[in-house]
Amino acid sequence: MTHSADKGFDQLDRARLLQLYEDDTETLISSIEMFLDEVVPAFQVLENLIEVQDWPGVSAMTHQLRPWLGMVGLTRLEQQLEVIERLAKEKPDYEMIPDAYRNFIQNLEHMQPVLKTELQQLTK
Hints:
Blueprint: H1 14-21, H2 25-51, H3 55-71, H4 75-90, H5 96-122
Helix pairs in contact: 2-3, 2-5, 3-4, 4-5
């Protein structure tokens, strides 16, 4: 069940994927595999930085992770992470940032099966 705040988080940004990869299916497959295997686990590090209120670390880590979201067609999640990065830089708030991160992670968890399905279709 999706919540109203989560509407639109159930599809990949196909226009962005076409712009980035055109007909290069192999590179797209590689990007999705790397994202699922290596980038997704890195969000645990980000969560730890938020828990200890290391706002410069949160800002740096979100800045590193954000482009990966766009590279696999998760544009709306990229925008959510950009908000967290901006909050960590400009207005660190111990309640606001963890709440925004929890919402982001829920949406990321929702999109992982979508990426896995996309990967299966691309590798047929």
